[in-house]
């Protein structure tokens, strides 16, 4: 199949999922074309057999806000016509589903068919999409899609509750490549850990875009409690608006020499398996992709019991779940687990096994392929 994919190409879970999906589709023999304002960051070094088409937005003094969504629609239609795409798959509803709708209608005028699929990821429904300035267009984009998927049952239910869509929504969960996200051998692990921690020190890790919804301040608060109980380091991967607040808390609690802000990293699959625990105390997560990536690396997660997280992490089996903001309980659970090697290793093994059994790319890719087939051969097919 010839598939066009549009996503936010910079740091963010929806872009990561879209990129990994494109890589898996290309490896399975499909022709994949990314259409976005810059090459997806996770594609770097893995571009083989994947085409990228840049959307350039020309400006004009009259435009206070250059219309990216129109430029995107134009590029989608051009690429679809030139490469005879079978379908477009857009990740994150706003504004991608509207651009895809425009591209489809433009091509229909020339007698060409271009069905499109929208995958809902989270804040496009739970936050941004609920804003009055976007809600009607988001609902319209969902209803006019030829197929809609959501990345968790939670997100599907929430979309139905908030948007009352006419379209059915299929759940296709996020996935992880279990051959890329792998536990390291003892020797490799010891070597890698030495970069960040001394022998005998535990490593906790957090990875996000440091938006308020991630509660990065709680990450540091949890860690400061853990660090009082046992020798440990915290790796903070990523960047965003809440980073300086997190740095300030680390500084004011006197643990700044134990907290390493690594900024944006390309090689996440090399760093995650070095950790003992992942901290994910988010206000809301529709899925929590990073928890799955950590699980595949045999790293359990201490997280909040919100949104789609309980679908990914089984409390007490593959990680531990707590109410939002309960930093004391999350810190106590981390300490207990780190002090109990038998329980820790059972949980780490269960995490890896669950990632392999339920969320491996090889299991989820066929679900997307079957969905594509249904949409391409659905109403309006030649
Ligand atoms: O987190 C966001 O602000 C948006 C979004 C993104 O594009 O990164 O993240 C969502 O999609 C991820 C991939 O499907 C999910 O793993 C995240 O849980 C989800 N974020 C939220 O629901 C807050």
Features of the shown structure:
binds ligand GMT; 382 residues; 15 helices; 6-stranded parallel beta sheet; Rossmann fold; 43% helix; 13 strands
The side-by-side strand order for the widest beta sheet comes to: 3-2-1-4-5-6-7
Unreliable runs: none
Largest sheet at a glance? 7 strands, parallel
Distinct ligands, ions and cofactors found in the model: ligand GMT
Task: Chart the SSEs and their pairings.
Layout: E1 2-6, H1 13-27, E2 31-36, E3 50-54, H2 68-83, E4 87-91, H3 96-109, E5 116-120, H4 123-126, H5 135-144, E6 147-150, H6 153-163, E7 170-171, H7 186-193, E8 202-207, H8 216-229, E9 232-237, H9 243-252, E10 259-263, H10 268-271, E11 277-280, H11 289-296, E12 301-304, H12 309-312, E13 319-322, H13 327-338, H14 341-359, H15 361-376
Parallel strand pairs: 1-2, 1-4, 2-3, 4-5, 5-6, 6-7, 8-9, 8-11, 9-10, 11-12, 12-13
The structure holds ligand GMT.
Ligand GMT binds next to helix 1.
């Amino acid at each position: 199949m010839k598939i066009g994919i549009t996503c936010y190409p910079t740091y963010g879970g929806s872009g990561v999922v879209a990129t990994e999906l494109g890589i898996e589709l290309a490896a399975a023999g499909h022709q994949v074309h990314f259409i976005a304002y810059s090459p997806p960051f996770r594609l770097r070094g893995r571009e083989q057999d994947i085409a990228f088409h840049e959307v350039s937005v020309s400006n004009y003094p009259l435009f206070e806000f250059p219309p990216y969504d129109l430029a995107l629609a134009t590029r989608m239609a051009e690429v679809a016509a030139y490469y005879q795409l079978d379908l477009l798959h857009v990740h994150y509803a706003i504004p991608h589903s509207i651009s895809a709708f425009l591209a489809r209608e433009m091509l229909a005028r020339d007698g060409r068919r271009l069905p499109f699929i929208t995958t809902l990821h989270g804040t496009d429904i739970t936050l941004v999409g609920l804003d009055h300035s976007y809600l009607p267009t988001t609902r319209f984009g969902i209803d006019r899609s030829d197929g809609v998927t959501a990345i968790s049952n939670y997100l599907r239910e929430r979309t139905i509750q908030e948007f009352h869509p006419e379209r059915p929504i299929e759940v296709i969960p996020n996935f992880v490549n279990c051959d890329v996200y792998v536990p390291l051998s003892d020797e490799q692990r010891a070597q890698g850990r030495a970069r960040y921690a001394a022998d005998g020190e535990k490593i906790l890790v957090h990875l996000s875009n440091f938006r308020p919804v991630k509660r990065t301040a709680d990450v540091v608060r949890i860690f400061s409690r853990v660090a009082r109980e046992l020798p440990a380091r915290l790796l903070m991967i990523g960047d965003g608006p809440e980073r300086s607040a997190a740095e300030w808390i680390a500084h004011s609690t006197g643990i700044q020499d134990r907290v390493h802000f690594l900024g944006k990293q390309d090689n996440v699959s090399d760093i995650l398996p070095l950790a003992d625990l992942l901290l994910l105390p988010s206000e809301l997560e529709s899925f929590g992709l990073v928890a799955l990536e950590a699980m595949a690396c045999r790293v359990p997660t201490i997280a909040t019991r919100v949104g789609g997280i309980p679908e990914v992490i089984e409390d007490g089996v593959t990680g531990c779940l707590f109410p939002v903001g309960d930093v004391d309980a999350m810190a106590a659970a981390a300490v207990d687990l780190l002090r109990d090697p038998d329980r820790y290793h059972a949980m780490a093994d269960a995490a890896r096994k669950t990632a392999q059994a339920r969320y491996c790319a090889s299991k989820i890719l066929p679900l997307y392929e079957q969905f594509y087939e249904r949409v391409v051969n659905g109403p309006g097919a030649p």
